[in-house]
Structure formats: structure tokens, C-alpha cells
């Protein structure tokens, strides 16, 4: 029944010529925006479906509204980190404006990630892609460039040599702000529960931490690598708190690890912030739900995802897009940070 | 350059006839699985790309590997609830097996949700859809049936009248287990911080709670509705704890609200579990990262998402799929639940 609605019927209802309907429904120039909208409304009302020929034409033109996102993480781990879902929700906020869609895949490794992009691009299912979890000399950048896929990376241009459109946050500046704040409170022994050292932004933070600590004359800070999971964050915190030179403050590379760190401090009978200061990263809602609430380097991850999507659509529609820094995370001081107390007895 | 690779070259490299290559690359019967794989490998190696004709054929055949998922929630809220990302990660685990994809949209309301489905289906971008957040007499079910979209709902068949393939968890049985456990510990005044009362599973839990409490001779339990956010969970907990007849145990409809409840108890100077027992729902990693760890109705949300995806592919490929119950959530008792202490002084 749907197939029987003709262009002519749509034209009659909209009060225009069949030619105008054809232009409007095929997104071609030649009709005004208000007429286009009236025609669309008429087509919608009648349940008009494009003919196979028109559909094939659309397929040839390529999808101009679908973003590809492939994430190389075990599926089970993805649900546990607020970062990705907030990033995706930011992308979706832009897709909502333009009625676009997100094509999402989780894969095991970079090769598979490239293969998925190749297949999506070959089948014209995406207009472009956003790359996350950038590494130094990331294989994907060249691979996607060779395929001709419009690409925006969420990562520091220092990692890409400026060869691709990028959105990024200034991780060095954020680390420096966190450490300066703790130093001002009187902390001299600061440690960090970091992320995956293979990732570019983790390495940037590690370097920045060492540099600012040296500059401020603090003890050389320890960075313990993790896989970003809460369990790994708990384990790293236990290790740091059980060490001979226990830190008086710990900076975490995300928020779920900081939540785990807070629980480990309680396990050890340490009072936060009197015995130990904690600073989280990313600052999802989680940080405001603990007691005490977690001080955090507050990062608008939702806005970061939206910026990545906007930059990609600029690239797709205008064939170029300026790389754009996202706002630098800023310190949100809450109840988990304070001047260090007198050194408690050894545990 | 890619366009110049011919079927004949692929055939030569794979050591088969051009006809076999055509069958293999068009996913038609007539070649063995091992031959098909050899041909695919050869095509991959040579960088073979299907001709436009073949691509249009694939478009006409429709996407048989892409699942549509539309979620009606504000984009910002989505990042905060572990449930969705775990559910999606479960869907992705099935997509990984078959090299399928997920098309994801966040929308504001049900009408928009139906419009997105209509457009995806018209453009043959999905093979079927999974519906979440089912309501009583859900408009979407009839709309998608009318469009002819293979659909699986994640929700109790009691809400759909059995008109559509469903996967669901037995929320009544889970509520009963939680309440019987608390009653066995000696609790008589149990409250619940529930979800959105418009959702079917929220209503089912509310009814089950009242029924089992009456059966066990407990005080009539209060259910406070929320929007599932941590903030709303905190607010509801404060209200319950400040009331004249303070409950000795609270059941939460998700885990982020239970984490918030734990912090509110600390704010009020109440000790968990001596002064107040808490039971979370869904049981993401979060519940094991707090101190004390949260007792929870443990629900394999990842497995639930995988079951929904498998059921949908059954439906797409075999035109029918039995509705399938997911395992009932089971109690994971941890440090946040214990017998009620002596009634403390009023706060």
C-alpha cells in the first residue's frame, strides 16, 4: 500500500508541481525551504516511500548524516566507564540537531578497527569517522586517510603531527593545575593512579606530572598504570597506601578509579581528606555522589563529544575543518582535598 | 586504483572460477565455507571493491546485520547510568560475532523515536530494532509492526500482551527475594527508591513490593519515584531518612542511586549497615567499589543485551523467535545489609 503513493499525489496535497516534489524529496536545489518543508510534510502524511531508483541514487550519493565510531575495548569494560557514554551522548546531541545517526562497533584490536572502517566506507554507510584512544604514531590515521574517510581524532595534535583534524583537551595544563593546587595546600608527596600508558593522553599526563613536580621542588611523583577499571584503581591505591613513603595526595586519571580509591582509604582506616587527599578526573555525576564528594579535574566530556561531531560535519560538508581545542579541564575542589594532616603512625 | 581489481584477478589468486568468486562475495549458496573464506581473503588482499551494481543489489537486499536502537532520554543523562552502556555492550558482543553494527539515536520523545525507525527502515539501514523502556500500551509496538520492522522488546510480555518477541527479567521474583531477605534479617519497615513510574518494569516492582510486604506482615512500604539519576536518588533518600517513620532498609531501583544513598546516610551520621541497610539494583562494578560494598540484586545487564540481540537476529533470519526470559536477578549480599540495630535517637 505504501508503494502506491505517487509523487503526483504528494504534489496535489502540497499544491505544487510533480517536478518540485522531486527536487524537494531528492534534496536538490530549486525549491525554497518553506516549499520543501510543505512537500516533506505532505509526503510524510501520505506515507510516501521513495522508489527503488531514488533509493539507489541516495545510496550512490553516500550517507552524509552517519558518523562511525569504533572503540577498541572489551565490551564488558565499556559499561563501567562513564567517559564513553558521555562522549557518545555529546555526539548524539549534535546528531539530534541534524537527524543523523551513529554507527557503533566494539572491536578487539586496531586491525579489526581498520577493517570495520573499510567495510563501512565501502558500503557508504558513514560520512566520516571519529577516532578515540589515540596512540603515538597511530596506525589508524594513515589507514583512514588512504581510504579517503573524513576523520576527526579526539586527541592531541602533538600525537598526529597535525596531519588530521583534531579536537583535544590540554592535559598538560590540567595536570599542572591539579598539582599546583595540591602543592599550595602543602602536599609534597603526590602520586597518581594513571591510565593505560600506551595511550597518548596518558603519556602526556605522566610527563606533565613529572615536570611540574620538579619545577615546584616536590618529591618525584609515582604514576601507577592501570586499565582504567575501578578494580585496577583499587589495587593501585592499596599499593600506594601500603608503600613506605605513602603519598599524602593521589590524582586519578578517571572518576571510577577515584571512587574505588575512596573506598580503599576507608578500608585502611584513613580519613579523607585529613589523612589523604584525592582528586578525580573527568568529573561525571559520580564525583558528587560520594561522601565526601570528590574534588576533580572537571572535564566537559559531553561537550567534547559534541565538538568532535561538529568538527567532523564541518569536514564532511566543507572539505576542511580547523582543529579545535576543547576547554581545558578545570579544578572543582570538593570535600576530598585539604592540607595534609600530621603524619599518622605506620599501618 | 581500487576500482580496477576484477573478479577474475580475485579468482586467479584464490584458485577458483570467477563464478565461485561471485557467489562467495555476494553471500549466495553454492560454495563451501572454507572456499568462501579463501575467496574473501584473496579479495581483501587485492583490495577488491564491489561494483556499483553489486552494491545496489546489496542495498536492495537490505541490511541484514545492523540493529537499530533508539533511546528516549536526555543525552546528558545517558552517560550517568551504567545500565545502558552495559546493555549496549551486550548487544555489541553479539554484533562482534557476526560483524554487524549498531545504529544508535537518542531522541526526546516517542513520536520522534517512531519517526527515526520509519526513516531507518525506509532507507533499509536496519534489519530490525530493539525497544527499551517499555510502557504499558506502548505506542511503538503497533507503529513498528505496521511498518513491518522485526522488533524485540526488552520488557515483560505482560506489558505487550504477547504480540511481539520479548526478552525480560522477572522483576516480581527479584523484588520478592530482596524483601524476603530483609525481612529474614528482621527488617519490618522497608522503603524503596524507585524509578520512573511511567515505565512498565517500575510499576511491576511497585506492585510486587506491596504484595510481598503484605504477605509477610511488614509495614506498608513507601516507594519514592525518581528519574533514575543519582541526584534524585539522594533527594529521595534524604526525604525517607528525615521522615517520622524512618525505614531501617531501603531498596534502590538502580545502582547509582544506591551509591548516592550511601553518601546521604554518611551525611546524616548513620552507619551502614548498623543503622540502615541498603540494597542496590543491576549491580554494575560500582557496587563493589564503595565502602561498605553494596548488597545488590545482581542482574547480568550485559547478558540481557546479548539475549535481546540474539533474539532479534533469530527473528530476522527465521521470521520467528521465541520470547526468552533472561535469568532472574539474584541477591548478592555484601556489606551494606545486616539486621537492624536498636532504634537510634531521632536526628
Rg of chain A over CA atoms, rounded to whole Å, is: 25 Å
Stretches of chain A where pLDDT is under 50 for at least 5 consecutive residues are 52-61
Provide mean pLDDT of chain A, rounded: 88
List the quaternary state of the chains: homodimer
Percentage of residues in strands of chain A? 5-15%
| Extended strand count of chain A | 12
| CATH superfamily heading of the largest domain in chain A | Response regulator
The portion of residues assigned to helices of chain A is: 40-55%
Taken together, the total number of domains of chain A comes to 2
By CATH reckoning, the class of the largest domain in chain A would read Alpha Beta
Counting DSSP H or I runs of 4 or more residues, the number of helices of chain A is 13
State the major sheet of chain A: 6 strands, parallel
Q: State the end-to-end distance of chain A.
A: 77 Å
Spatial arrangement of strands, main beta sheet of chain A: 2-1-3-4-5-11
Amino acid at each position: 500500500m505504501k508503494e502506491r503513493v505517487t509523487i503526483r499525489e504528494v504534489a496535489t496535497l502540497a499544491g505544487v508541481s510533480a517536478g518540485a516534489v522531486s527536487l524537494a524529496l531528492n534534496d536538490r536545489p530549486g525549491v525554497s525551504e518553506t516549499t520543501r518543508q510543505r512537500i516533506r510534510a505532505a509526503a510524510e502524511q501520505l506515507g510516501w516511500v521513495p522508489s527503488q531508483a531514488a533509493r539507489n541514487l541516495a545510496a550512490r550519493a553516500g550517507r552524509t548524516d552517519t558518523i562511525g565510531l569504533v572503540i577498541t575495548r572489551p565490551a564488558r569494560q565499556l559499561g563501567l566507564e562513564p567517559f564513553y557514554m558521555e562522549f557518545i551522548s555529546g555526539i548524539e546531541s549534535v546528531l539530534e540537531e541534524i537527524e543523523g545517526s551513529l554507527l557503533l562497533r566494539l572491536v578487539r584490536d586496531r586491525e579489526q578497527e581498520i577493517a570495520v572502517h573499510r567495510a563501512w566506507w565501502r558500503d557508504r554507510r558513514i560520512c566520516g569517522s571519529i577516532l578515540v584512544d589515540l596512540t603515538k604514531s597511530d596506525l589508524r590515521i594513515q589507514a583512514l586517510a588512504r581510504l579517503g574517510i573524513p576523520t576527526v581524532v579526539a586527541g592531541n595534535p602533538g600525537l598526529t603531527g597535525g596531519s588530521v583534524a583534531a579536537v583535544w583537551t590540554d592535559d598538560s595544563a590540567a595536570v599542572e593545575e591539579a598539582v599546583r593546587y595540591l602543592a599550595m595546600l602543602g602536599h609534597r608527596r603526590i602520586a597518581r593512579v594513571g591510565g593505560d600508558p600506551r595511550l597518548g593522553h596518558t603519556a602526556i599526563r605522566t610527563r606533565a606530572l613529572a615536570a611540574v613536580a620538579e619545577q615546584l621542588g616536590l618529591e618525584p611523583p609515582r604514576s601507577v598504570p592501570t586499565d582504567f577499571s575501578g578494580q585496577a584503581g583499587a589495587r593501585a591505591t592499596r599499593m600506594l597506601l601500603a608503600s613506605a613513603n605513602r603519598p599524602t595526595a593521589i590524582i586519578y586519571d578517571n572518576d571510577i578509579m577515584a571512587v574505588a580509591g575512596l573506598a580503599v582509604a576507608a578500608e585502611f582506616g584513613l580519613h579523607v581528606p585529613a589523612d589523604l587527599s584525592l582528586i578525580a578526573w573527568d568529573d561525571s555525576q559520580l564525583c558528587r555522589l560520594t561522601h565526601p564528594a570528590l574534588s576533580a579535574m572537571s572535564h566537559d566530556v559531553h561537550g567534547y563529544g559534541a565538538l568532535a561531531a561538529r568538527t567532523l560535519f564541518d569536514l564532511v560538508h566543507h572539505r576542511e575543518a580547523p582543529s579545535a581545542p576543547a576547554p581545558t579541564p578545570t579544578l572543582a575542589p570538593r570535600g576530598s582535598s585539604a592540607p595534609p594532616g600530621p603524619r599518622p603512625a605506620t599501618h
